[in-house]
Write a structure and sequence with these properties.
Blueprint lengths: L1 H17 L6 H15 L10 H10 L6 H40 L1
Helix pairs in contact: 1-2, 2-3, 3-4
Length: 106
């Protein structure tokens, strides 16, 4: 859990830096578990909307513009989808290669 929160906080900080949003890493460390808890509320599909609201509620008071907070949220969504698709392709390819190897041995 601590490792997951630390990785999320570092990811949030990297996204913030990519958007020229400079906040202390400690702020991202505090925001990460709160956003994760908000995502547990089952009112959205894959956190769409709830994560965006949580980012605006947490980062706008810290001096981030509402557009900047929304951009951070959308980039985090994009990062999740890109990594999921990439690992899905790897997993599918691995399963296909193993299936072909099993069929060749029989």
């Amino acid at each position: 859990s601590l490792f997951f929160s630390a990785i999320n906080a570092i990811t949030y900080a990297c996204i913030g830096l990519a958007l020229n949003i400079v906040l202390p890493l400690a702020y991202y460390m505090l925001a990460s578990p709160i956003v994760t808890l908000v995502l547990l509320v089952p009112i959205s599909f894959n956190g769409l909307g709830t994560r965006d609201y949580a980012y605006q509620a947490l980062f706008v008071p810290a001096g981030v513009t509402p557009d900047g907070a929304l951009a951070m949220s959308l980039l985090y969504h994009a990062l999740n989808y890109i990594t999921a698709i990439a690992w899905g392709v790897v997993y599918a390819g691995r399963g296909t290669a193993e299936s072909l190897a099993d069929n060749g041995e029989k």
